[in-house]
Amino acid sequence: MRAFGIELSPNVRSIVGKRKFLTPIERALIVTARVARVSRQVLAAKFDYSLTAITRTVKRV
User: Fold this and answer.
1) What domain of life (predicted)?
2) pLDDT digit string (tens) for 17-61?
């Protein structure tokens, strides 16, 4: 249990699921790999993200 007032980093995995934020470096690597025709499934497994997260990351760029 945490003490009151301690800041929590938003860049940690939640207890409920696999949610975490992509770092700018991870985003760049994912986009570069997709341009090089690496499949979404391979990227999802490599970076430990869902297919949806990979797809949305590429769409945003």
Assistant:
1) Eukaryota
2) 566 788 999 999 999 999 999 999 999 999 989 999 999 999 998
SS3 state of residue 54: helix
The amino acid that residue 26 corresponds to is E
In a domain, 10, yes or no: no
| Distance, CA of 37 to CA of 60 (rounded, Å) | 17
Query: Would you say 61 and 31 are in contact if contact means Cβ atoms under 8 Å apart?
Result: yes
SS3 per-residue string spanning 8-45: CCCCCCCCCCCCCCCCHHHHHHHHHHHHCCCCHHHHHH
Is 2 contained in some domain? no
Q: Which of 28, 26, 34 is nearest to 55 (CA)?
A: 34
